[in-house]
Amino acid sequence: MSAFTGFENQSKAYLEYPLDLGDIIHHPASTFIYTKTEFDRYNLLHRNDWAVVDASLHPEKGDVILIELNAEQCLIPLDKVVWNEDMLMLGVLIAIIKFHRGKSVLPDLNIADLSKSLNSLLIASPETSFISQAVGNNMLPLGIPNGSLNVIERHVDYKDGDIAVVYQKSTFYCRRLNFSEGTLEDGYGISMPIQRPFSVEGVVTKTVILFRTLLQ
């Protein structure tokens, strides 16, 4: 696989390196996937997202944690927690995985297999996919903050409204396609005209937002 960096910084170079998304999991036996409940008000986690939670970590300043209260679970920043004797901490949030195309299907996995299978779950066709790292917050409103990892799939048929990696004017961009207007849009709706030569390098199907764990 390969990675493009610097979609917002044209001076950044094209890089290639091996990457396995399972590497975000450092403690497989204590890591699990959590999905949003009606009780959960954490605004960065949406219905179609997966939250990757590590139950073995000790919470630190700036962390987001998963708690259980009155048989209900939710994510909450550590600095906003008002502890009481009925509250149970279930783990520390290490990543949120956003699905931009289609609905996510939570796999029926043994937790010990999660680190081994996460990469294959997110990248169905490695030979036609690559990973990009977002630089800048131009796509933040669409769930792609600075530093997040994007799964780009070349084999997916792109359509109007998709988030994609495109190449025009000798530069790579990550933008939403708006063919009806002939433009490329960032997360704030700021558009730039599509200009030839132009190519769509792949569709952004998933984004991995890292909270605590760094890839090794």
TrEMBL record:
What range(s) does the Peptidase S24/S26A/S26B/S26C domain occupy?
Answer: 116-183
Q: Which residues form the signal peptide?
A: none
InterPro entries per the UniProt record, alphabetical? LexA/Signal_pep-like_sf (IPR036286), Peptidase_S24_S26A/B/C (IPR015927)
Q: Which SUPFAM superfamilies match?
A: LexA/Signal peptidase
The record's Pfam families line, in alphabetical order, gives: Peptidase_S24
Q: Give the protein's recorded name.
A: Peptidase S24/S26A/S26B/S26C domain-containing protein
**Upper classification of the organism:** Bacteria, Pseudomonadati, Pseudomonadota, Gammaproteobacteria, Vibrionales
